[in-house]
Amino acid sequence: MPERSSNGRLVASRTMPVASVTRPVAAALPVPSLRVHLRRSLLSLALAIGLVLAGPIAAVRAVSVADLPPRPPVEHVIDDAHVLSRAGNGEIERQLESFSPERVDARLITLSRLDYGLDLATLGYQLVDRWSADPPAGSTPDPLLLLLIDTQTRSTAIVAQAPLDRQLPLELLDSTASTTMAQPLRSGDRYRQAGVDALQRLATVLQGGEDPGEPVVEEAVAVVSNIPTREETSQSNAFTWVVVLLVVGSVVPMLTWWVFSR
Question: Could you give the domains of the chain?
Answer without folding.
Answer: 65-132+141-206 (3.10.310.50)
